[in-house]
Each structure stands twice: as C-alpha cells, then as structure tokens.
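Q: Sequence in, structure out?
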Amino acid sequence: MRASVITLLTLLAVSAHADYNGSITFSTEEVTNHKEKIKELVDGAQNCLLDYKAEHKRFYNSNCVSKGGSTRCLSKYYGERRYSKKRFQRRDGGLFLTYLPTALRRAGFDRDLVNEMEPISCVGLALTCLERGFNQTGQSAQWDKIMRFVRANNVGGTSLQHALQQLGWEINYWNPASEESASERMAKWDEEENKWQSKGWHAYRYNNVMTRGTYWFNKVDNATDLVGFEKETPAKFSKYPFWVGTANTGYHVFPGTFEKVVEAHSTRHITSFDNLEFSPFNPLAGQGPKWTPSEKYRSGLIAFPPL
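A: Exactly. Output:
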C-alpha cells in the first residue's frame, strides 16, 4: 500500500508541474480550412485503413508454406519492435529475436520476400493514414507542424490527439465501467495491472477527468458519451469514418473506422494474421482495443474529427 501511495503522489506532482514539450497552435485560417476539408480528409484516412486491410489479406493468403502437416502464412506487415536490429539480442520465449531475413528463413519462407514486407506499429499506422488525409487535402504544412510536435514528445499518442484538438477535433474520455461500479472496478484493474509493462492508472485518470476535466496533459472535451458502456459499443462511433484512439496514457494508439478499432501490433510473429486486426470497440467483451489475451486496455482517449 505504501508503494502505491508514493506512486500516486509522484503522479500528482508530475501532472501538476509538467506538460508537453513545446506547444502547437494553428491560425484561424488553418483551423477554418481544416474544418472545410474535414470530410475529404477523413475519407482519405479511412480509405488508407481499408487499403491496409485488403493488402494484408491478399498477401497473407498468397504466401503460405506447408511443413509437418501444417500450413503457415506470412503477414506482409511485421512488428517493427520485434524485428528491429536494435533488439537483436533480446530473448523472446527462450529464443533470440532475429532480424527479418533470418526470421523468414527460420519460418520456412523465401528470404527475398523481405523486399515486399513493411514494418508496422500502432502509432505508425495512425500517423500514416492521417498523413494521407492531410496531404490529399492540401494540408501538408499543417501535418508537418503536427509531426514536429509529436516527435518532440516521443511520438506519443496523446500528444497527437492534443495536436488534432487544436484543429477542432473533440477529445473524448473512454471508460466502459458504469458509474455505480467505477470505483471498485478500476481499483481491481489497477491492482491487476501492477506488474504489467503498461499501466492504465484507471482510478487516478478517472478522478482527474471527472474533477479537473483533464487526462494526462490533455483537456477532455467530453466525459460522458464514451463512459459506462460496459459491453455495448457506444453509438457515437457510427458517425465517424475515421478517428484516433489511445489507451494507457498513449502507450497504445489505434485508429478506427466507425465502430471498428484498427490495431497494428509491433511485437507479434510474422506468421500472425492478427498483426493487423479490425474488431468492434468493446474491450470488456474481449474485443478491441486489445494487447494480449490476458492484458487488456480499459480506458483512454478518443479524438473525433469535426464533422
């Protein structure tokens, strides 16, 4: 208990005195232009997600090998964390991680397929599809400004949402726990996540959102529409062809299209079809956003475009 109290006090101190590195602002003309072109931008970003989905399925079904009576297929999009040269010596399940060509050979695939594969990560997918939308609508200068700010803040998802908010995007807090059970449920979540690499600090974040209107360094515009939905996908998603979500203070970033969460995973094996997955926004029902079968994402922020 004492360690938990110290941790909480540390979080309170950090939140009271810290903020994002640098700042980001847009002119009235830039904000107006963004809102005028938002439908086209969102359509471009959504098409990007659908293009990824179609190419992922095509490549996976076209590159399979049979060995020992079983068939394995290859994902075009590989986890850039798992197969990074910088992580060459880290162990994973007793085996050394290997750079991609060696991993292909060990899995029984032609090493030349490396030329057709692409690295992927959760935040990378969100940035790629947003960039397409901004560029297609003549807003590359605004996108460059966003990327400078995001890079200055370790390419974090909440900093991306903060930048989008300056252009009129609405920041919503999401938490499926109903008000009646929120305190008990979130205390249980926090206890369960104590030894996880990523922690949601759900009770602390919830209290800040409800009393101060802030989550981490982000101002929350709406703390009602996506709270307390339990195992029902919130109806609000049906309005938006594209949106940007985060969980656990930006540790996980996930774009989405309507009710579907779109997740790119940076640590899964090259033969996993779920390197890129679409699932309903419904974490307590075992749907997205996901991490592993045992480790869940259960609260965070969603940025909705100004449609």
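The two ends are 46 Å apart (CA to CA).
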